[in-house]
Design brief:
This protein has 15 helices and 16 strands. The protein is of the alpha+beta class and about 450 residues long. It folds into two domains: about 1-210 and about 275-350, no CATH class; about 215-255. The protein has a four-stranded antiparallel sheet with strand order 3-10-11-12, with no helix packed on it. It has a three-stranded antiparallel sheet with strand order 7-6-16. A hairpin with a 7-residue loop joins strand 6 (about 70-75) and strand 7 (about 85). Helix 2 packs antiparallel against helix 4, helix 2 runs parallel beside helix 8 and helix 5 (about 190-210) runs antiparallel to helix 8 (about 270-285). The termini are far apart.
Length: about 450
């Protein structure tokens, strides 16, 4: 089966590669910004939800900052044993400056925003010439994209920028990141967000249209038209707030009684608390990470922060790394030959914690992993001596003897052996205490007994 996609000028024939694709159904998905049904028959796109629902915004912002701040480092030696970081390779330069005027933070931020609001993100690879490696990576809003699939195989993407004719991109021309099922995390929150919007709308309507009487004076007597203005002027001068004219004056025992339902009666507060917890759960974020501090303590916040990066952020970083490895690097023969691969540096999360960062450096030093100058480079400090001199002792890791020779005794073993030898000497000395020496025994044997 062949799928022909034409923009009126250029025609491409895409051959399917899967054995069941001849009987597959061609599906056109998008372009769409997603939609959430709201109170009163209204609806909002995913992007509108992000910027109108506080807890959704907090969740997306948390991922945006968590991923965009982490450095994405380029290495050589994917299949060999000599892993080495490279800072001047084409891939490193591409990730550092993905498009004119765009920074690495901009690119990773756009990726995180689209991924966690739309469930997908697309980047266009532009090349200086046919067959040359990409020199730019341009983010494409997923709301512009129509994905064309045959069965489960993506055949092409049609991009509708809103101005001019749509244009077609083949899978090899883009990098496509997608979450589980290619669906937005907002999908399972449809009803929750609809109820949250209704609660917020109800609260606003109550404040706009409900009575806002702040105080009242009542009397069983009947007040005359001459008495009411004078009495009101005196009472407002004594008791009215900055806005003035906020006091009610009732005569003949008239009293105000509200028949409207309060927010407490309607359970609005509990509903909104449930909403924020469901949003945090669907995004996989621990509640204190988005400002829910009801059960937070100093100790559990530290543990939850660690859990957030290890259990939530790290798997998504693996998704990004693997997608870029397959769709950006491996399809370029020169980069594949160089053994290029990409990894995020999770050590960046220790920057706000000097103690944890110092402990990490001490561990790298004591295990023989880093030299003194390696650690100084991590701290962006000048090296000691010539950093390229192999004879410089500050360039060599201080490897413990048992790591160089597994049979060599460790410091603990040497200390234990010395302790055992000392203990044995003390025991022997104690056993000898009170016994005659050899010379004393011989003198005693030759002694003449007294008569």
């Amino acid at each position: 089966m062949s799928v022909i996609i034409s923009d009126g000028v250029q025609t491409r024939t895409l051959k399917t590669s899967l054995p069941w694709s001849d009987n597959g159904i061609t599906t056109y998905n998008g372009p769409s910004g997603g939609s959430i049904g709201l109170w009163g028959g209204r609806s909002a796109t995913y992007e509108q939800i992000v910027f109108s629902q506080p807890w959704v915004y907090a969740a997306v912002r948390t991922f945006y900052l968590a991923i965009a701040r982490l450095p994405e480092k380029t290495y050589m030696g994917l299949t060999g044993e000599d892993r080495q970081r490279t800072r001047d390779h084409e891939v490193a330069n591409l990730l550092r400056n993905p498009y004119p005027g765009g920074s690495a933070f901009d690119r990773k931020g756009a990726l995180a925003f689209n991924l966690f609001s739309q469930g997908n993100h697309l980047e266009l690879k532009t090349r200086p010439a046919t067959g040359a490696p990409p020199e730019e990576l341009w983010p494409i809003p997923w709301t512009w994209v129509q994905q064309i699939t045959v069965g489960i195989e993506t055949m092409a993407y049609r991009v509708f920028p809103g101005i001019g004719s749509p244009y077609t991109l083949l899978p090899r021309e883009v990098v496509h990141y997608r979450l589980m099922g290619g669906r937005s995390p907002l999908e399972p929150l449809r009803r929750t967000l609809g109820i949250e919007d209704a609660a917020m709308d109800w609260t606003q309507q109550t404040l706009d249209n409900g009575p806002s009487l702040r105080g009242a004076f009542s009397t069983d007597n009947t007040l005359t038209d001459r008495t009411i203005p004078r009495l009101r002027a005196e009472l407002e001068e004594l008791y009215a707030g900055p806005g003035g004219k906020t006091l009610g004056i009732f005569d003949q025992g008239l009293k105000f009684s509200s028949i409207s339902q309060t927010a407490t009666d309607a359970g609005v507060g509990d509903t909104r608390k449930a909403t924020r917890e469901e949003v945090a759960a669907c995004f996989g974020i621990q509640a204190p990470m988005i400002g829910i501090l009801d059960h937070a303590t100093y100790s559990n916040i530290q543990e939850l922060r660690r859990s957030f990066y290890v259990d939530t952020v790290a798997p998504h970083l693996t998704l990004v790394e693997d997608t870029e490895q397959v769709q950006l690097i491996q399809c370029e023969s020169a980069w594949k030959r160089d053994g290029i691969f990409i990894e995020f540096d999770m050590g960046e999360i220790l920057k706000p914690d000097p103690l944890a960062e110092a402990q990490s450096i001490m561990l790298l030093t004591s295990s023989g992993t880093n030299s003194t100058n390696d650690n100084r480079k991590l701290k962006r400090m000048d090296p000691i001596g010539d950093p390229n001199d192999p004879e410089n002792p500050y360039n060599r890791p201080r490897v413990p003897a048992n790591l160089l020779d597994p049979a060599a005794p460790t410091a603990a073993t040497v200390a234990a052996s010395a302790s055992a030898s000392m203990h044995e000497a003390l025991v022997i000395e104690a056993m000898r205490a009170g016994r005659p020496t050899q010379k004393e025994a011989e003198d005693a044997a030759h002694a003449v007994p007294e008569s």
